[in-house]
Amino acid sequence: MGLFAGLDVGTQSVKLVVYDPEQRGIVASAGQPLDLAAGDDGSREQRADWWVDTVRACFARIDPALRGRIEAVGVSGQQHGFVPLDRDGNVLAPAKLWCDTSTSDECDEIMEAAGGAARCIELAGNPILAGYTASKLPWTRKHRSQAYARLATILLPHDYINYWLTGELWMEHGDASGTGWLDVRRRDWSPELLAATDPDRDLRACLPPLLAADTLVPIRAALADELGLPRSAQVSAGGGDNMMAAIGTGNVVPGVLSMSLGTSGTLFTYAGEPAVDPQGRWAAFCDSTGGWLPLICTMNCTVATEAVARLCGFSSRDGDALLAGTSPGADGLLMLPFLNGERTPDLPHGRGNLFGMTATNLTPANLYRAAMEGALYSLMNGYEALVDAGLRFEAIRLTGGGSQSAVWRQMAADMFGLPVDVPEQSEGAAFGAALQALWAVRRAAGAGDSDLSALAASHVRLDPRLAAQPHSGATAAYAAQYRHFLSHLDAIRPLYAD
Ligand SMILES: Nc1ncnc2c1ncn2[C@@H]1O[C@H](COP(=O)(O)OP(=O)(O)O)[C@@H](O)[C@H]1O
Ligand SMILES: O=C(CO)[C@@H](O)[C@H](O)COP(=O)(O)O
């Protein structure tokens, strides 16, 4: 059997893993950082050619002998980014990203045109929140009128990489549901939401076909030659990074809870049917295997820890050592880490807040701990909605860069009162993309092991050395601090109302 490549175009970097399904091991990997253009108005943008150049650089770092054995490639990407193309497939403007809060007025305008947030949920399963793709279109109409005039196709980041790899335009249901335009119950575009976004043109014409999760498309021969891949290599449907991390953490059956600690913080679980919350307390997305993926996403996870580490002059990679003398609750120091504005809770104009400072507790270590805790309190807030809805979990599967911190692993176990398991394959999204490609190839071959849950069960391996068990004393300390988090959140909401 050949090798399977998984690419993850994240916010901070591109990651590439090459997986050998026979050996059950990652045989090569490469990562390369990405720039981010940030504006005071909350804009967060990247250029599509940065992604392509970085993907090229990652492939170049893999041994050519391994590249020559790659049978299929799966692509994962940060969700929601708006990639506008003209009719010749040229990119018209920088991509506004999932963490771009400059379009919150346009979110309100779309929801008003559709009949309000509750009506959006009735129509398509989700309100139009800051970060989702939909509001970036009217923003483009207002601020980039030339790009709007020439707009022929809308893609998401991973769709664009698929287009570059294959020359074919498509979307799949998982990432497409993060546009805000997909009716997640019918798994098709909502005409009402499209019309509410742009009453003057048929946006449906700008959206490429939605292909099934097990689709395979041949790579472009010229690009295969350039990247050193076989001309027979294929590209699977791919998906949003959370959809791919679901596969890469074995979250393809009900009852598993995954948490990703990256630029964003996310919590998600698999559902075999649409999982819509009438109050919109979670994102009712589709997954990239034919199911659904109720998801909580915060915009400030490692955003907050990186900011504190930078301020205090250390690397987050060394953060655990600094935390040695600290304890749950950070000695009373509490951070509401909404540095970039926030989606969960819905405070696009929010800012970070620090509470509980005394003459003795304001140390770099407590500050760093407060950032880590604050990132998890935000997720806890969303998790309670899932629990209210009757969902129960026995453990957390942790992935994303933050999963490399032993302190964060233990903190998650203690705060949520659940054991934390960490897959051996630490790049959950990139690994999930490789597994999706493997699954699609096995299905196309009619192979016996083509059932995804069986495939994930046999390929996603947990690393017992990285597991953490909850300690009840710490759980109680976090619960007390979490109550403060909620009361401070109530207090600051009016400050950031518009
Ligand atoms: N050992 C560590 N301790 C704490 N944080 C870490 C550690 N290793 C990585 N990280 C964090 O993880 C981030 C990268 O996470 P990742 O999931 O790759 O992000 P994204 O997919 O959003 O680009 C780093 O910027 C850093 O903040
Ligand atoms: O917006 C969301 C999910 O709705 C984010 O989770 C993005 O998908 C970006 O992910 P990372 O780059 O942080 O992995």
UniProtKB/TrEMBL annotation:
Q: What family does the entry list?
A: Belongs to the FGGY kinase family.
The kind of enzyme this is, by top-level EC class, is transferase
Gene that codes for this?
xylB
Q: What Pfam families does the annotation carry?
A: FGGY_C, FGGY_N
Active site as annotated: D241
Q: What is this protein called?
A: Xylulose kinase
- The answer on whether this UniProt entry bears the keyword DNA-binding reads no
- Has the keyword Kinase been applied to this entry? yes
Q: Name one GO molecular function term.
A: D-xylulokinase activity
Domain named Carbohydrate kinase FGGY C-terminal is located at 258-440
Outline the extent of the Carbohydrate kinase FGGY N-terminal domain.
5-248
Q: Which residue positions does UniProt flag as site: Important for activity?
A: D8
Q: Which reaction does it catalyse?
A: D-xylulose + ATP = D-xylulose 5-phosphate + ADP + H(+)
Keyword field: ATP-binding, Carbohydrate metabolism, Kinase, Nucleotide-binding, Transferase, Xylose metabolism
Q: What is its EC number?
A: 2.7.1.17
Residue positions annotated to bind substrate are Q79, H80
Known InterPro entries for this protein? ATPase_NBD, Carb_kinase_FGGY, Carb_kinase_FGGY_CS, FGGY_C, FGGY_Carb_Kinase, FGGY_N, Xylulokinase
| Known role | Catalyzes the phosphorylation of D-xylulose to D-xylulose 5-phosphate.
